[in-house]
Amino acid sequence: MTDDSQTPRSASGQDPEQIPRGTPRLLGATEIRRLATELQVRPTKTLGQNFVIDGNTIRRIVAAARIDPGETVLEVGPGLGSLTLGLLDAAHRVVAVEIDPKLAERLPRTISEFRPALASHLDVVLADAMRVTELPHEPTSLVANLPYNVAVPVVLHLLEHFPGLQHGLVMVQDEVADRLCAGPGNKTYGIPSLKAAWYGRMRKAGVIGMNVFWPAPKISSGLVSFERHEPPRTTASRSEVFAAIDAAFAQRRKTLRAALAGWAGGADAAERALRAAGVDPQARGERLVIEDFARIAEARNLAGQDHGVEA
Ligand code: SAM
Question: Mind listing the pLDDT tens digit for each residue in 88-121?
Fold first, then answer.
């Protein structure tokens, strides 16, 4: 459980006097407090429940997401609806996937209260975002304040299963944001960076402080924006390439020749695949880009065929 003894307190920027007249109303500390009390919500760490209580943060996320007015946005974990309201103002449609039945059930009513004219533009799906493979509408972008403990698997799962997702912006723990966006040679570079790079280009789009959430997390959050691109050209499948990445980073201090031995069927086989892929067998995984792993997986498959071994 997170520390829910404190009630949400006004964060900077939600002072109604500072918001220009005509700006659509978003959820602030007062509204979050009212909803949480009504629903008897006790935010849990297990579900990464930290709700945004600051309208300016919502406006910043929505602006950074560069949503086209015709788009269908997928939001994971709408919670009490803070971001959902901002997204409905910017997009044609929002499909919100929430795992917590209490929150999923309340969301349409919150939207009807705050944006009656847009209520029909929202679909709420009660589901685990790590398992969902079908949605009522095909989303073109992903914008979410993600549950922190599952942020990377959720992003990878959604990019795999919803090829229509062309771009997006997600808020995650700041260190996870750095890992997703890192390039080779960086100390935070690793499995999330490489697997994310299979699907698209990830870019750090800012840091968000702790006091805009209730309950306040102990660490800052980072924004990551992404644009989908074509995966590397290779005859190896995505899961074969990902298996090579997993093997290389399971023993990241070892040379690739040693680290990939188990995966390739021996150190010599690993060396042959690496050389065929044009990669130095003495290098470490942290120096390689996704295209290198794609070539390594392909070379191993080809070597397997040459030896009559199933790849
Ligand atoms: N979007 C809201 C906001 O910004 O205030 C809430 C964000 S909160 C960090 C994460 C939300 O994700 C919570 O509502 C939580 O219940 C939900 N959640 C956690 N795990 C989930 C999962 N596997 N699938 C879908 N939703 C999940």
Answer: 999 999 999 999 999 999 999 999 999 999 999 9
Question: How big is the chain by its Cα radius of gyration, in Å?
Answer: 22
Say if CB 154 and CB 98 are below 8 A apart: no
Q: Is the CB of 58 under 6 A from ligand 1?
A: no
Break the chain down into helix, strand, coil percent, rounded to 5: 45, 15, 40
| pLDDT band with cut points at 50, 70 and 90 for residue 306 | low
Domains of the chain, earliest start first = 4-228 (3.40.50.150), 238-306 (1.10.8.100)
CA 97–ligand 1 middle distance (angstroms): 8
User: Ligand 1 centroid vs 278 CA: distance in angstroms?
Assistant: 43
Among 31, 98, 105, 156, residue to substitute to test ligand 1 (most atoms within 8 Å of Cβ)? 98
pLDDT tens digits, one per residue of 182-223:
999 999 999 999 999 999 999 999 999 999 999 999 999 999
d(C-alpha 214, C-alpha 195), whole Å = 31
List beta partners, residue 207: 222
Query: pLDDT exceeding 90 applies to what percent of the chain?
Result: 88
Nearest one of 120, 77, 71, 118 to 98, comparing CA atoms: 77
Tokens of 238: 């995505």
**Which of these, 104, 46, 115, lies nearest to 76 by C-alpha position?**
104
CA of 98 to the centre of ligand 1 (A): 6
Residue type, 287: R
State the sign of the Cα–Cα–Cα–Cα dihedral 297, 302, 303, 305.
positive
> What's the burial of 202, exposed, middle or buried (CB within 10 Å: 0-12/13-18/19+)?
buried
